[in-house]
Amino acid sequence: MAKLNLSVQDDTEESELKYRAPALEKGLDIVELLAASPKPMPPRQISEQLNRSVSELFRMIAVLEHRGYVAMAENQSGYELTNKLFSLGMSRGVSKNLLDYAIPAIRALSDEILQATHIVVASDDQVVVIGQMDAPAAPSFHVRVGYRQEIVEATAGTVLYAFQNPTSKAAWRKALQPTVSESEWARFEQHAIRARENGFLIAQSTYSESITDIACPVFNDRGLVAAVTIPYIRSKLSISVEACANALVDTCTSLSNALGATPRETF
């Protein structure tokens, strides 16, 4: 799985670390392994992947489970990460400030258009849902907080890519392009161009043929920060896709202004 390493690099070699904490390192190894795994992992598989004995990792797993960072899957097939780390990350200043403004905004939007809405941010080569709102008294598609999807497969991911600055976009392209076929990348780029030109993107959901995704970027005083998506479902109560798109753009523009975006960053 490709990783978008857009953070400041730390050139300190592992061998140069002045202090070591073997127990902590084992625990972090378990967390990072489970984070990268698409399905739960039993202790034996964890030990094999980390090249350590089951007995060596048993206490680490037990403590992580007790503290709520990992949990046994419902089908008892192995351990998986809980949303605790995600929740801790969302309590930080930037994310909390975003959600403080975004949740009331998408709630009002859902009430207006009678569709579910959710807000996503980029996380390595994926998008992750950090907030969502169900539609009131209407059929809608529920996306749970913490849900992840590959950037190149998500309409919101396309929008986040489209509105990156040139340097960041080049880094994203370098990391993402090798993960898909040539035709898939060409389609992704075409959608990104359309999103940039229109200020939003309407596209068929890759999850279900009955869903049309409508996504729009959100900016703050530092630039692009998130995207809001409407997983549009047509029903007797629904308004048109175009009307939903207009309402979404208005919401994201107001949200961006509230977050301190400059006029050139809004629509």
UniProtKB/TrEMBL annotation:
<dbReference type="GO" id="GO:0003700">
    <property type="term" value="F:DNA-binding transcription factor activity"/>
</dbReference>
<dbReference type="InterPro" id="IPR050707">
    <property type="entry name" value="HTH_MetabolicPath_Reg"/>
</dbReference>
<dbReference type="InterPro" id="IPR036390">
    <property type="entry name" value="WH_DNA-bd_sf"/>
</dbReference>
<keyword id="KW-0804">Transcription</keyword>
<dbReference type="InterPro" id="IPR036388">
    <property type="entry name" value="WH-like_DNA-bd_sf"/>
</dbReference>
<dbReference type="GO" id="GO:0045892">
    <property type="term" value="P:negative regulation of DNA-templated transcription"/>
</dbReference>
<dbReference type="InterPro" id="IPR005471">
    <property type="entry name" value="Tscrpt_reg_IclR_N"/>
</dbReference>
<feature type="domain" description="HTH iclR-type">
    <location>
        <begin position="21"/>
        <end position="90"/>
    </location>
</feature>
<dbReference type="GO" id="GO:0003677">
    <property type="term" value="F:DNA binding"/>
</dbReference>
<feature type="domain" description="IclR-ED">
    <location>
        <begin position="84"/>
        <end position="261"/>
    </location>
</feature>
<dbReference type="Pfam" id="PF09339">
    <property type="entry name" value="HTH_IclR"/>
</dbReference>
<keyword id="KW-0805">Transcription regulation</keyword>
<dbReference type="Pfam" id="PF01614">
    <property type="entry name" value="IclR_C"/>
</dbReference>
<keyword id="KW-0238">DNA-binding</keyword>
<dbReference type="InterPro" id="IPR014757">
    <property type="entry name" value="Tscrpt_reg_IclR_C"/>
</dbReference>
<protein>
    <submittedName>
        <fullName>Transcriptional regulator, IclR family</fullName>
    </submittedName>
</protein>
<dbReference type="InterPro" id="IPR029016">
    <property type="entry name" value="GAF-like_dom_sf"/>
</dbReference>
